[in-house]
Predict the structure.
Amino acid sequence: MTMDDAVKLVAQKTGDYVISAFEFDSSYYVLVTPFEDYDPENDVDHCYYPVQNGIVKDPINDLGLFLGSDDPDGMFEAAKHSKLYFGKDV
Amino acid sequence: MSDHIYLAHHGIKGQRWGVRRFQNKDGTLTAAGKERYDLGSSASASKDTSLSNRRNRRAKQIAKGAAIAAGVLLAVYGGYKLSQLRSKETSKGSSIVDDFLHNTGGRTSPTIGRSIGDIDRSMVSRINQSNGGREGEINCAHTSMAYILNSVFGENVRAQGFSGVDEASGLVRNGRSKKIFDAAFDGVRHIQPPASESFERSVERIPNSSTGVLYVRGGGLAHFLNYERDSAGVLTLVDTQQHDARTQIMAADSPAYRFLSRNVGVSEILDFSNASISDNAEDVFKHCVKGD
């Protein structure tokens, strides 16, 4: 499964708008928002959906995702290099 | 000094500034403190929510209110600011939302600028119970507001999950969640550190004996969480959106705190120490918080 496939899965399951996604430790993490006019400078209304082995897991807030990781700094570094999807058709 | 604003400090014989009866120097509880607060036991949680305990707290609150009305100063300790509580109790906005808030499950003991040992862990863990869906994962503004209402204003509310109606109140526009605090409260002090400033330098701007909200950002992470800075300047972060107890209350030497300090910046500090509830608050509270 590619990252684009994971993004499509999350978008179809949630109906939300995908902001970005990144890969870490063989899983994808897709950041979504319910807002079409999401403003990354002001909005906090987003969360991550983990996709593991093609299965979309329960969502988790951004800080919780990193703090719950065995390697929070490594995961956060990967997140800094997320692929942006917002405003694009997925 | 006007007769509307006053601050008094009464203590106990033998007390020393900065020395607490139930805490060690590092903020951890002494054996007597652990016994007093009964931390970590399941009995503590059940006891805390019991009807008798609620009645006791309510009775204390009523007694406190009566004393305030009579102009009698209660004993205060540390950062406890009676003058601020008095202004909150008598604010117009407070009376407007009185029915809503006071039907949400009783009241707690309000205090500004708590030390880590004084933070009510069971209250913190109860605030966000919207598990399983994204509604409980994108409601950090709601959970932060619930903590302020409980800790600063003595209410006993939980956060509502995100419902997309923050704007529906007609009070929140152009900035969405960031705006709900100013829509619901007056007198919030906004401190905006420079964007390039380090986390540690920014949190030094937080006044001692204060309680508020931190808006942190960095690397795609954007989050509201609460803070408490006690009278000795010790900072504790409180994240009531988290479901893991290890990351709900963060001392400065905790892994969660260190992760934040390394990776994000403080976009804004909202100090609620002198805040009151605004006239328009009810519309905001209705979809941000709820009772048990």
Remarks:
- The interface with chain A takes residues 132-134, 137-138, 140-141, 162, 164, 174-178, 215, 219-225, 239, 241-244, 247, 255-256, 259-260, 262-263 of chain B (CB under 8 Å).
- The first strand of chain B starts at residue 158 and ends at 159.
- Confidence is low (pLDDT under 50) at residues 1-12, 14-19, 37-93 of chain B.
